[in-house]
Amino acid sequence: MTWREHEQRAQELLWEGEVEGAAEAYCTALRIAGAVPLGATDGEETVARVRLVRSVARVLTTVGRFEPARDALRTYLGQVPAGHPEARRCVSLLLAGLASVQRELGDNAGALEALTRALAPARATAAQPSAEDIEALAHVLLDRGLALKDLGRIGEADRDLTEARQLAERIGHHSLLGHARTGLGLLAVLLNDLPAAERHYLAAHRAYQAVPDGENISVVLHNLGVLYERQRHYRDAARHFEQALALDRRLDSPVGIADNLSALGGLAQVFDRPAEAARLHRKALELYRGTGHLRGVITTLVDLAICVRQEGPGAAPDGDGQPSVDHLLAEALRLAEQVGDPRDIADVQFVQGDSFLLAGRTDDAFARYLAAARVQSRLRSGMSEDEALKYFDESRGDEILDRLVRLSAGKDNARALLSADAAKGRELVRRMAESGGRPGRASVEDLSTVDPELALFREEVDPWYGGIRALLAARELPADPRTGEDATTSPGRFLIEYHIADDTAVVFGCGPDDTVPRATSVPITRDRFREAVRRWFGGDGDGVGPRGADRGVWLEMMAPLVAPISEWTVPGQPIVVIPHDALHGVPLHAVPVQGMPLGLRNPLSYAPSATVLCHIAARATTTPSTGAGPALVVDASGHDRSLVFAREQARTAAEALSGDRTVTLLPDAPSRGDVLRALRRSGGPGIVHIAGHGTFDAQQPMMSGIPLGGRSLTARDIARLELRCTLVTVGACSSGVALRRPGDELIGLARALLIAGADALLVSLWRVDQLSTALLLQEFYRAWLHDRAPKAEALRRAQLHVADLTAAEVLAYARRARERSHGDSPDDVHTRAALALAAGEVACAARDFALAETLAAEAEAGAGPLLPAERRRAERLALQAAIGAAQGTPPDPERRIFRHPRHWAAFMLVGLGD
Predict the structure, then answer these.
(1) Cα separations in angstroms, 708 against 689, 723, 737
(2) Looking at the domain assignment, is residue 823 inside a domain?
(3) Which of 256, 288, 837, 841 could form an S-S bond across to 296 if both were Cys, CB 3.0 to 4.6 Å?
(4) Is 859 found in the same domain as 712?
């Protein structure tokens, strides 16, 4: 028989599921073909022989004979003559095949090197319109994408796998398409896009069925099982694992059998059956060791160690002489470092840390958790922000840093605080500190003493904490040339930082004179706290918790979290608050401390992390903003007729800002392009105020922003700008709302503004009341610009002012707004009617029902141009005024109608409060 006949026989055996027989037939074909040197064959024969050796290597890999597969590929690679007409194609095919075997053996770096060598000749050959050459290029891209994925280079992996998929679709190659779809599914799982992963896997299943390809159908079934297990659909997961196991047994595929035994062992662990799980993992481990499948060995060693730990020190289900937990994990770590996949290394180190912790070896546990955190950090370093944010969804990063905080708190508070800060906004820190010469960007090296990851990993706790204390120190405020007042010194600030762990919350505190941070623990479970925030925060739509008995429960739960503030600070002392987890959405400034809302007791500012604040301060020092320079005021009220006070807000802001600077006012209805051009103008504005409507997109938070007619000014737009602003005010609904991702990353408009270069933000947490917002921002600018109060103090004064406003004062403001509107736009009957309606509602709240009836009649007289919602409000006002008048209740013009926090607490200051 010729080698081609043996090859044909091997293919037939493969279709029949006789993998071992197929392997022997392929090896015989290769032995016969090898009698003639490769360089002595013509072009077609040479390519056919190269395809044969690839087929041999693939089948040998299937039956676990990795070394013979690798040796065959290397032998033929060395035989390809440099001048042969098909040399480039042959080298490309052989390198791709060699890389596949190297990946199976855990040599990811070697695989990537081989595939990178193969890519250039593959592209050159595929330039010819040949399906075979396009197929070869797709194979190289596919294998290279998988190697890049395993090395954590996510963006490059996605590009290669996507191109491989496109090429496979172009030539209608079902097997190759299935491989590409499977790779993209694995990548989607890594990035926590589980719906996309399921779509890719199901598409791969259809492609393999079209061939058919039983071996890879089993792979897809297994991957679907893993996907369903992650979603806690355990019955579906078990069904897919069992189907894949049955198919692998028919195909006699030891690696496939081991994969599914290990997966079923994992499910047994979930259901707390450690003895059964250990038995399955030991069977899988034996198969993995027999085939040299290092990735499988690593995972199974870790799972087996967890089972042994669960069984207890006295359990020996398989007899004496079984390796200890320490030995199993030490071997797993050695192999993981040999393979080089950072995810495997971090997982092993994390489990080692847990084992040491359970054994009471806290120093060893801390060292392992720290090592795992370092690996996580290195893994993220090559990702884009979008990739890294998605990666956090499946990483152990939060768990690792939780343990570092809890192990240190009470023993080494500086290290515990550093660990807590490293758990917050790591990607935001990375984006703000990255080098590259962009204006306002300091390099990572310049900021190493205030980067929590760098400080934690280098054991540089003292320099980092020294940077925090310096940030809190008193500062000299410049003299005011307008009033002739001398320079003054601002009081030092006090830092409050939270860390919410599994079953406790740690509250840290430090001032500029504290040589060691303070720390206290509050017993509360993270799940209970998150559920409480979900159920109670904004329970009545105002964003500051429910009313009645539920409000009492809410405040009772919050009290221990704010109690340390009353012990550590005095009224009037500036406080910087660093929230964590669900606390990011809670207006802590509205929570009472010693009977007074915290934000009225103390000037308060927030930051995503202490490190972010340090980066802002460093940026402000090295490249100061043009805060005394031009200002930009954007009036977007023309895009939404309901925003009758937004125009007044914008005009008031423009007047307040016009003292020492040029003010550009974009009135009525500027387009997205108009606003972007104004923000990009040479020099850029030092202060920005945007008055309009705000939106928060929970599905795509970087698409949150300010609607401007046909297109919105989004967070994505802003993050790409290069601003240097001392303050950006967004006087709109929900402008400070953010989606929290694992890693305590906050995604939304505020994040974008900080990345773009704003030193401080004044943004809102919920749907704001237009009238109280206009009054609050007017008073804020007066206190900040006229009285020269620091921004945090100016906001406190503005909030006190609004909370203390009488109905008569609010009515006077509404009256002035109506008069100004009539003078500016005498034909705008809608605005006059809407302002009359707003004034009528204030009169009704002041129990001046006669005035309310008059204003309601005036509003209803203009009901034609009123919006439907405004028309309903006018009808309701008329009814309430009539009922109140009938009851004869006397007016109360001194009533404080904005006392409730929904009116004064919506806005928060983020960033520098000076």
Answers:
(1) 15, 20, 19
(2) yes
(3) 288
(4) no
* Residues 789 and 815 both lie in one domain: no
| Phi-psi sector, 744: left (phi>0), alpha (psi -120 to 50), beta | left
Report how many domains make up the chain: 3
Give per-residue pLDDT as tens, 75-86: 776 677 666 666
Helices (H), 393-496: 397-408, 413-422, 426-433, 452-457, 461-472
Cβ of 162: how many Cβ atoms within 10 Å? 16
Task: Give the three-state DSSP class for 256.
Answer: helix
The tokens describing 367, both together, are 């060292």
Same domain, 796 and 842: no
Which secondary structure element, helix H or strand E, spans residue 279, and what is its range? helix 274-291
Quick one: pLDDT band at residue 390, thresholds 50, 70, 90?
low
876 and 768 housed in the same domain: no
Which is higher by pLDDT, 714 or 830?
A: 714
Boundary-marking domain end, from 581, 610, 639:
610
Indicate if 712 and 858 belong to the same structural domain. Answer: no
The CA-based angle 586-592-596, given to 5 degrees, is 135
Contacts of 232 (CB under 8 A, 6+ apart): none
Mean pLDDT of 703-730: 89
User: Counting runs of H as helices and runs of E as strands, what totals does the chain give?
Assistant: 39, 19
Contact 800, 836 (CB under 8 A): no
Determine, yes or no, domain membership for 695.
Answer: yes
Domain of 686, in residue numbers: 624-804+902-911
Residue 472 backbone dihedrals phi, psi, to 5 degrees: -85, -10
Cis omega (within 30 of 0) for bond into 212: yes
- Among 549, 543, 573, 579, smallest CA distance to 561 is for 579
d(CA 776, CA 802): 6
Is the Cβ–Cβ distance between 226 and 263 less than 8 Å?
yes
Structure confidence by residue, pLDDT tens digits, 452-480 = 766 777 778 888 888 899 889 876 655 55
849, 885 in Cβ contact below 8 A? yes
- At which of 572, 588, 610 does a domain end? 610
Interacting residues of 181 by C-beta distance below 8 A, sequence separation 6+: 165, 200, 201, 203, 204, 207
Write the single-letter amino acid at 277: A
CATH number of the structural domain spanning residue 764: 3.40.50.1460
Q: Supply the pLDDT for residue 573.
A: 93
CA distance 689 to 823: 24
Q: Is residue 493 part of a domain?
A: yes
Yes or no: say if 844 and 881 are a contact pair by the CB < 8 Å rule. Answer: yes
Three-state secondary-structure class, residue 778: helix
634 and 601 both lie in a single domain: no
Residue 39: HSE in the Cβ half-sphere, 13 Å Cα cutoff: 9
Query: How distant is the alpha carbon of residue 577 from its chain centre?
Result: 21
Those residues with Cβ within 8 angstroms of residue 433's Cβ, 6 or more apart along the chain or in another chain: 441, 442, 443, 444, 447, 451, 615
Helix axis angle, 108-126 relative to 87-104, nearest 10°? 150
Same domain, 642 and 791: yes
pLDDT category, 219, cuts 50, 70, 90? very high
Q: Is residue 531 part of a domain?
A: yes
pTM attached to this predicted model? 0.75
The CATH number that applies at residue 530 is 3.30.420
Residue with tokens 């190493």: 448
Whole-angstrom distance, CA of residue 94 vs CA of residue 73 = 6
Q: What confidence category does residue 240 fall into, taking pLDDT thresholds of 50, 70 and 90?
A: very high
Using alpha carbons, select from 493, 465, 496 the residue that is nearest to residue 564: 496
Closest CA relative to residue 681, chosen from 737, 631, 741, 606? 631
